[in-house]
TrEMBL record:
Protein name per its UniProtKB record: Nitrate transporter 1.5
Lineage, highest ranks first: Eukaryota, Viridiplantae, Streptophyta, Embryophyta, Tracheophyta
Single Gene Ontology MF annotation: transmembrane transporter activity
SUPFAM superfamilies: MFS general substrate transporter (SSF103473)
Primary location recorded for the protein, binned into one broad class: membrane
Membrane topology listed for this record: Multi-pass membrane protein
Organism: Populus deltoides
């Protein structure tokens, strides 16, 4: 029976109102009722959950570089590398969460399980390394045993697994609460991604200010306890909204579906296909809504070789007469188009990695740069990590500016039905602003060195240049995030097939992950090359004898090259073509009524 008929049947039986038309179900597996599920009632719960969960995560991550240098006595370069590797691992684990969500567990269960893992990891983290009376700017801690350090790394990497598995699913799960086939809810779904990223940044605001202050003063245990409490509150709030959520059913293992297309196409590599053989491609019965409840993807011309997987050969006809189909020889065109969609996304995704290299400097080298500047106003000391508050405020400002000013303004100039800048255009703008941020950071470092003492030992606060000169580079990074990361979330969510939505969000996280690994690799290479002939190098332990400005200018140059490549990839990209959910005409009639 078609999905619309099931929805109508349940609606009239229970007298509860109109069902959603995107295939979502409620907690009991029945078609979701619009008036009693999803929308902003569920969306706000998820936004609050995201804010609290982010507070917990950044309570560990925001000052991790200082924890490594002050408590574990690591050098600046080693600490920056370790933070980059850890942050990269957080986001690489997003692929694990996305796979479990899309294939087996569904997004709700995956979010709940991985949030629970974060709480357990934070609780164990509290009891591993507990510096007392040390770990502030002036009182470094003593040495720790190899067992303590090993358990410490085990704990923070478990936190990486928990948060990495949670992040891509909560973004997609929030978007699931809005029916994109409903014009009103479809507009709310686009807005949700902006507010989601705002909630993420507001959650980190508390971490970067209050928790950042406590941890900068050596009160690490208090900061970690507050992070654990926030994670627990986030989980309780998430579970409290269970009855209101809408759910998409898992679609099965995507790896096997991808493998079937590749193998089937290779088996028919010698089969001659007619020049215009689209009508001879295998498709599922149109009486079914789609495969596994998902919308069908219309045929596109790119990657012609893969079309062979859906070409009906004489052997396939014989198999169908016997009432069987070998999925490793003949695949529906929607399954083939799934593979094409991912292949088209890869060049765009690769171009976002260099941007993530720029973004990750906020958690490492920006903090170390700030620590070497004047951090006091009267008798109050400003924690270097708290300068990322300017990034958060910039994100909030530019989200408001874009949604309320720039988007309507651009729409009026375009004079079309489309809204404002496309996702690809916004991502390009983000790259341009990122270049400006790195140039700003490099110029600030030039002036910091001009007013710095070269003979200092620890060099904390060794420059008379105020830390507030970092504000522009943080604000520019924040502005670039609104265009790059929000646009990226919308783009990958819109351009991935229905059965791979969590994977689309995981691509965003994996871009950040690889950006951190590339950053770590770049720092290692720069340190190795710049320290030849007994030179102090660009990023020495004493930044006043180095040239951190040159590293920032190097990143600006790499991002400029990346922008050129990205523009070429964006011009080549072709959007996914989806068939509307079953019986769209009935849907439009119901909406008008």
């Amino acid at each position: 029976m078609a999905c619309l008929e099931v929805c109508k049947e349940d609606k009239f039986k229970e007298g509860e109102g109109e069902c959603t038309f995107d295939g979502t179900v409620d907690w009991h597996g029945r078609p979701a009722i619009k008036a009693k599920s999803g929308q902003w009632a569920a969306g706000i719960i998820i936004l609050l959950n995201q804010g609290l969960a982010t507070l917990a995560f950044f309570g560990v991550g925001v000052n991790l570089v200082l924890f490594l240098t002050r408590v574990l006595q690591q050098s600046n370069a080693d600490a920056a590398n370790n933070v980059s590797k850890w942050t990269g691992t957080v986001y690489i684990f997003s692929l694990v969460g996305a796979f479990l969500s899309d294939s087996y567990w569904g997004r709700y269960k995956t979010c709940a399980v991985f949030q629970g893992l974060v709480i357990l990891s934070l609780a164990s983290y509290l009891f591993l390394i507990r510096p007392k009376g040390c770990g502030d700017e002036l009182t470094p801690c003593g040495s720790h045993s190899s067992m303590e350090v090993s358990l410490f790394y085990l704990s923070i990497y478990l936190i990486a697994l928990g948060n990495g598995g949670y992040q891509p699913n909560i973004a997609t799960f929030g978007a699931d609460q809005f029916d994109e086939d409903d014009p009103r809810e479809g507009y709310s779904k686009v807005a949700f991604f902006s507010y989601f990223y705002l909630a993420l940044n507001l959650g980190s605001l508390f971490s970067n200010t209050i928790l950042g202050y406590f941890e900068d003063e050596g009160m690490w245990a208090l900061g970690f306890w507050m992070s654990a409490g926030s994670a627990f509150a986030a989980l309780v709030l998430f579970l409290g909204g269970t009855a209101r959520y809408r759910h998409f059913k898992p679609s099965g293992n995507p790896l096997s579906r991808f493998g079937q297309v590749i193998i089937a196409a290779m088996k028919k590599c010698r089969v001659e296909m007619p020049p215009d053989g689209e009508e001879e491609l295998y498709d599922v019965d149109r009486k079914d809504c789609s495969m596994n409840g998902n919308r069908k993807i219309l045929h596109t011309d790119g990657f012609k070789f893969l079309d062979r997987a859906a070409f009906i050969s004489s052997r396939d006809i014989d198999d169908q007469k016997r009432g069987c189909r070998n999925p490793w020889r003949l695949c529906p065109i929607t399954q083939v188009e799934e593979v094409k969609c991912i292949l088209r996304l890869l060049p765009i995704w690769l171009c976002t990695i260099i941007y993530s290299v720029v973004f990750t400097q906020m958690a490492s080298l920006f903090v170390e740069q700030g620590a070497a500047m004047k951090t006091t106003i009267s008798n109050f000391k400003i924690p270097p990590a708290s300068m990322s508050t300017f990034d958060i405020l910039s994100v909030a400002f530019f989200i408001f500016l874009y949604r309320r000013v720039l988007d309507p303004l651009v729409s009026s100039f375009k004079q079309t039905s489309s809204k404002g800048l496309t996702e690809l255009q916004r991502m390009g703008v983000g790259l341009v602003i990122a270049i400006m941020a790195m140039v700003s950071a490099g110029l600030v470092e030039c002036y910091r060195l001009k007013y710095a003492r070269k003979d200092c030992k620890h060099c904390e606060g060794s420059s008379s240049l105020s830390i507030f000169w970092q504000a522009p580079q943080y604000a520019l990074i924040g502005a670039s995030e609104v265009f790059m990361y929000v646009g990226q979330l919308e783009f990958f969510n819109a351009q991935t097939p229905d059965g791979l939505k969590s994977f689309g969000s995981a691509l965003c996280m994996t871009s950040i992950s690889l950006g951190n690994y590339v950053s770590s690799l770049l720092v290692t290479m720069v340190v190795k090359i710049s320290t030849e002939d007994h030179m102090p190098g660009w990023i020495p332990g004493n930044l006043n004898t180095g040239h951190l400005d040159r590293f920032y200018f190097l990143l600006a140059g790499l991002t400029t090259i990346d922008l050129v490549v990205y523009m070429a990839c964006a011009r080549w990209y072709k959007s996914i073509k989806l068939e509307k959910k079953c019986e769209e005409n009935d849907h439009e009639e119901n909406f008008r009524v």
